[in-house]
Amino acid sequence: MRPLPPSDCPLPEKTALENVPDRYSIYNEKEKNPEESINILEKSYGGEETSRSTLANGAWKQDSLLHQNPAATAHTKETETYRKKVAEQTYFCKQLAKRKWQLYKNYCGETVALFKNKVFSALFIAIFLFDVGGFPPSLLMEDVARSSNLKEEEFIMPLISIIGIMTAVGKLLLGILADFKWINTLYLYIATLILMGLALCAIPFAKTYVTLAILSGTLGFLTGNWSIFPYVTTKTVGIEKLAHAYGILMFFAGLGNSLGPPIVGWFYDWTQTYDIAFFFSGFCVLLGGFILLLASLPPWETRNKQLPKPAPAAFVYKVASNV
After folding, report:
1. Most buried pick, 40, 111, 132, 188, via CB within 10 A?
2. Could you write out the DSSP letters of every residue in 15-37?
């Protein structure tokens, strides 16, 4: 952090910072505010006046030093150059930190604006609960089959393979359904959540391989709703905010994937059966689906405002004749 000792090697013409083209620099000189420029000019003008007075007062000292010790003069110039570069780089770092802070501030503001959208908030809860409850079946279906005392000879195909194949089929078919204009993709996604929750709750009642295979295929097919999730997010927040919103949702989806299997394993360690574990998983997915459904339905006040008001009843009065 101290100035290097003077050397006989010539100084480089330009520093690495000065050699960077303007298009690669993060801070652009044109983006300075007029007030900042005025303050900088005033400071520089004041610094020049101070330096001039200092030079006038100590001119005889510098003249004597020039004639007495040229090495000291060179060292003084290098020190002044070093201080100038440090001042320039410090100013650059301050402007860079100010710009980054503004970016973080804007990001936080946009995040708060996203959560003010009730459908996005419900989608955030639904995707978290879906990954808490929907991810464990792909890991534990084989253990569920063994706990039901099924013989290995009955296993025509591994249950995990059935889930994987049907997931691919579900992604394809659900993506095709989302392309139809007469299908509301958000309601389609909600339907997959509710059906998946019911299938998870039905797993404890399955005692044969065929039943478990059917439920595994159903779960795999409904897990294919990942193919329509980006489209649902786009319809909820718009294409401009898709990257921001999708990143937040994927973070909490990953958090749900991390929490789901340990929670289900804890239920098994507690009860020595998978029944309560899959009831819990099904409840989580169902809860997320119903929350998203309630948030996506138009409120009753809006419906009442849109309904045409009945015309006021007209009454005809006749003057009674005088008898």
Report:
1. 132
2. -HHHHS-GGG-SS-GGG--HHHH
Count Cβ atoms below 10 Å from residue 161 Cβ, excluding itself. 11
Q: How does pLDDT run across 98-147, given as a tens digit for each residue?
A: 777 777 777 888 888 888 888 889 998 999 999 998 887 777 888 888 77
List helix spans (H) across 58-154: 59-68, 70-115, 118-134, 137-147
Paired tokens of 226: 């990942």
Longest alpha-carbon distance in the chain: 139
Is there a contact between 284 and 129 (Cβ–Cβ < 8 Å)? Answer: yes
Specify the pLDDT at position 45: 46
The pair of three-digit structure tokens given for residue 155, joined into one six-digit string: 């296993």
- From the number of C-beta atoms within 10 Å of its C-beta (0-12, 13-18, 19+), residue 218 rates as buried
* Dihedral sign, Cα of residue 86, residue 88, residue 89, residue 90: positive
**Residue corresponding to tokens 């290097």:** 4
Taking residue 58's Cβ as centre, other Cβ atoms within 10 Å add up to 11
pLDDT classification of 31: cutoffs 50, 70, 90: very low
Rounded to two decimals, what is the model's pTM? 0.62
The helix-helix angle for 137-147 and 242-271 (nearest 10°) equals 20
Q: Residue 294's closest CA among 107, 126, 80?
A: 126
Query: 220 and 163 in contact (C-beta within 8 Å)?
Result: yes
CA distance linking residue 281 with residue 261, whole number of Å: 10
d(CA 176, CA 242) in angstroms, rounded, equals 21
* Amino acid identity at 12: P
Q: Chain-centre distance of CA 107, in angstroms?
A: 10
Q: Residue 46 to residues 36, 40, 58: CA-CA distances in angstroms? A: 15, 10, 18
CA distance 63 to 57: 12
Question: Which one has a higher pLDDT value, 158 or 15?
Answer: 158
Total length of the chain = 323
Residue 290 reports pLDDT greater than 90: yes
